[in-house]
## 1
Amino acid sequence: MTTKQSAKSREREAADAYLKFLQAKGASSRALYLRSKFLDSFMVELTAKTQTRKEFAAALELTLSALSNDERSNALNTAREYYPFWMNDIKAIAMFEEYYGFNVTDIQWKPKHTTLKAVTDELEVTKLNEIESQALNRYRHLLIQKGANKSVIDIRTKLAKLILLRLRDAPTTNHAIYRISVDLTLPLFKTKEIKQLYLDVVREFYYFWLDDPDAEVKAFN
């Protein structure tokens, strides 16, 4: 078997495991079809790539460039969910399964339309409620424990606060709602660097938003 064939079978095996997981969670035939259709294109870009987040992100960017705006939301969701399967990260897959909230019906809720300037202004003047403050303070405390410097703590907590504000009127607390907010907020940022930082905070802060008692352990694992 050639290296390319071996790499291709790796992508297919990961995709099959991911789609089987979704099916077990109650995903509709249409949801499975749309995800499978995207993966067929995405796997071409991933073939023979080293299993790193950087290579995955580069392949995703190439795949997204050929999609319409309407197709990108599903593509981003699929890529995010597919990643631990592609990495063969058993621990991440187990955690994903624990918190995955696949909604069989389409969720109608969306965060309100905004701009980067508007959301930045809102960050400066909006006070958090007790539950939101508790989540943010737990996250800030963990960053301090990890030895982050003041500038890192400030920018990451601002992004976490932005996450809270965007989710403030969400009808429920689950993975599906969280990712809808993320996907509609990410395009507000203009540079790759701030987009990546936002996604890092999204991944870390998720457990604090859930009020998971083990958030401090899970956030950086």
## 2
Amino acid sequence: MKTKLFRTVMLVSLLGLSAVVLAKSEIDLTKGQQTDPGAAAAIAAFASGQAGWYYVFYSNMPSGPDDPVLAQKRDLFVAVLAEKGIKAIGSRGGPSCIPSVFTPEEQQFEKSYNAMSDRLLKGKLGPSYMEDIHKEVARRMLANPAKA
């Protein structure tokens, strides 16, 4: 009981020092995950202040120009991630539209990286952070529609 009360008091009194609270949460969230390469990389990136998110997005290149609406959605998603302090990481150092070309190990790395990153980011930004990002992308697209 004393421990719970202490944690509550600390959380409320340290609103301006959320990094301290986050550091405690990070320890709890990542316990036992250091042996998984993707999770370990996400933990290390988060600890260094470079939270990241692997993603694969639509691109028609080099076959032809990208669909302007999908390109706008991609660019806005990357921009909103950056505004939240999340580094957008395309597969193999660059975005791709064909996830099947990646080895099972690469796919597993990205999956476990994102799973751990998601847990850490929920602790930092709230449980609906990704939904909020997608809503902001949709809002911006409506405010400034792409021109075909």
